Amino acid sequence: MHGPVVPGWLLVALCAATGSYCLLRMRSGSPTARSAAGGEAVMGFGMAAMAVPAAFLAPPPWILGAYAVVFGGAALRALWLARGAAHHLHHAVGSLAMVYMALAMVPAAGDAAHTGHTGHTAGGVPALTGALLLYFAAYVLSTGVRLLPVAAGGAPSGAVSWGARPELALACRLSMGIAMLAMLIAV
Predict the structure, then answer these.
(1) 15, 48, 61, 99: which has the highest count of C-beta atoms within 10 A?
(2) Long-range pairs, 100-103, Cβ under 8 A, ≥24
(3) Residue extents of the structural domains in the chain
């Protein structure tokens, strides 16, 4: 990812921590919840890998194509699973946004002579970037609202394992939505 190094590393840490928690969530819950957590883990670790600052580690030329293939496969899987659970549509949009960002980071053919310039990126389609920014901003706001405290009358009694805590799953989705916004702004 192009941009400042410190925010890039913070984004890597956030996405990797989110991916790790999603792996923990895969150990509990229904098969549908485990499947969703697996998709979110792939997204979290993939976002962490894409967010590594280019100033620290210049990615090999083939890696952006590999990202596009991996996230394209994740999008197809999410679309297939969306037949049974609407939440997978969000996974498909997120995966397709990652494909878009990977392709937007590929330098144009004429840019080979300018690779030494700092801050020079290929960029994306402004209308598509804007649409994705609006989608993820709405997603972040709606997820954030669902995290607001409600009346204590509906609180579950008894201990709940760390992998089955719905508020932590929402917090992970919120953090990945915010990370997606940060990555789209950098496009």
Answers:
(1) 15
(2) 100/124, 100/128, 100/132, 100/187, 101/50, 101/183, 101/184, 101/187, 102/50, 102/64, 102/65, 102/67, 102/68, 102/71, 103/64, 103/68
(3) 5-60+121-148+161-186
